[in-house]
Structures are given as C-alpha cells and as structure tokens.
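Supplementary Note 2. Why include the ligand at all?

Several targets in our set were suspected to adopt different conformations when bound, so apo predictions alone were not considered sufficient. For every target with a known small-molecule partner we therefore ran a joint prediction. The input for AR6 is given below.
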Amino acid sequence: MNDKWFTFMEDDCLFLHRSWTGFGIYEVTFAAKETGFLITSVHVESDPDIYKRDSDMGEREQLREIIAHVAGEPMPPLLPILIQSKPQLEAVLGDITTEKVDAIVTAADTVLLGGGGVDMAIHRAAGPELRSHCRSLDGCALGRAKITPGFRLAAQWVIHTVGPKWQGGSHGEPVLLESCYRECLARADEVGAESVAFPAIATGAHKYPRTAAAKIAISTVRKTPTKVREVRFVCFDVPTLKAYQKAIGEAK
Ligand code: AR6
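The joint prediction is reproduced in token form.
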C-alpha cells in the first residue's frame, strides 16, 4: 500500500484499489512465461463517478508505473497490454423492443420461434423476417445464446438466450442463468456490439426469483471480460427495477 494505491493478489489476478476510497480500479491478470510473467488482461473501472479514465496510452503508462512500483522492478518497455473496460451498468423501466442500442437480448425458448413474454414482443416488433431467420438456426440450448439481425427493430442485433426454469434453486439454475449472461456478452463481442440491453431473463414464465436473478445478472456482467461498454437492464415492472437498482448499488 502507498498513499494512492492499495494492491493485493488473488490467484493470478492483481487488484489495485484506491487507498482513500477503497474503490477497485484495475484488475490485472498474468500468465507465466519462461522468462517471467505476461499481462494477459487489464480491466479498468469506467464509471466516471469512480474513476476518470485517461486515454488508453496514458493508462498503459500509468499501469506500467504502478505495477513496477508493486513489483519493485521496472517493467519491460514493450509489454503487451490488452486494455478492457468494465461496461457501465444502468437499470431502467421500459419496453425493450424500443431500445436504441446495438443489441437487445430476448428470453427465448429452445426452439427460438418466438414464444410468449418478452420474446413474443420482440418477434412482433422485429417482423416475420426474424422468425424465418430463426428457423435456420436449429434452436438454442439452455444457458447458451445465438445472435440474429434485428430486422425492423431499432437495435441492429437480437441475442436469443434460453434461461432456466426455476425449480427451487438446486437444479443448476444459478449456473445456467450466469451462463446466459456470459454467452450474450460473447455473442455481442463477436459482432462488435458495444451497447446491449437485457430483459430480466427467466423472471417471467420461468419464475426465477427476481432478487436472486438481478444479483446474478449484475455480478456476471461485471466480472465477464467483454468489449461491451454499456449494459442496460430494461425492467418491465417497478419491483424488478428496484431489484436491479439494489443489485447495481451493492456491486459498487
Ligand atoms: N420489455 C422488457 N421486459 C419485458 C417485456 C418487454 N417488452 N415483456 C416482458 N418482459 P419472460 P422467461 C419481462 O416470461 O421468464 C416465453 O414464453 C417480464 O416481465 O418473457 O425467461 C419464452 O418463449 C420478465 O421480467 O421470459 C420462453 O418459453 C422478463 O421480461 C419463456 O417464456 C422475462 O419474462 C421464457 O421465460
């Protein structure tokens, strides 16, 4: 610890927190190489209320200095660093079909042909081309995600994911729900979508308790490496919105 940074390691990850506020700013992961260690990823807090970001180059230099300070020795000058920011998170009340983001997520079933709830609303708004396109996808497994164009939607893409049915919580539901969020971010990264809107996956017909589902949504999006910069949780009712706002507040 020095006057600006409190640093600690957990497994292969170095955490750099601000000494005064305690806010986590950097998470740096390392991989062992024959000649030492290589930084494989760097996550930077991008909420401007917590940390005003420098340019990526400035950040790279700053990190090099901090890590050199922690390690007690200078870093090699051409160390490759992949800078990734954590996405900004917000929860809003609304209808996801009207969201002006790069990609919206739908809570689908395994055949991907537009069931009820948010999936039906998205299929209606996207037009029949979406169903025709989905027919060629050969469905989607539980906990996975597939991506299609948004057709008549404002969003360019629709990410279709299949959430778990709530069966009391001991049938793998949390792991499957977490997988839905990770898979959706992976699909978004594959097409370069930088803003993504999620509904409260599995909390409708599938009856996943909203508080538990919101916690998984927030924690998974915060810890998953992604190039997505903005994640909006679009809640259809006030209790769901409150659950998401609370989960976002607790995760800070
Ligand atoms: N915008 C935002 N959220 C919405 C909207 C909307 N337009 N409409 C509903 N929600 P659900 P699930 C919310 O049932 O639980 C379907 O039949 C809703 O209030 O759509 O994952 C599929 O075909 C709830 O908070 O999805 C599957 O078979 C959330 O979206 C099955 O239901 C999810 O509710 C999936 O069940």
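The two ends are 21 Å apart (CA to CA). Residues 95-97, 107-109, 115-119, 121, 163, 199-206, 234, 236-237, 240 surround AR6 (CB under 6 Å). Comparable summaries for the other entries are listed in the accompanying table.
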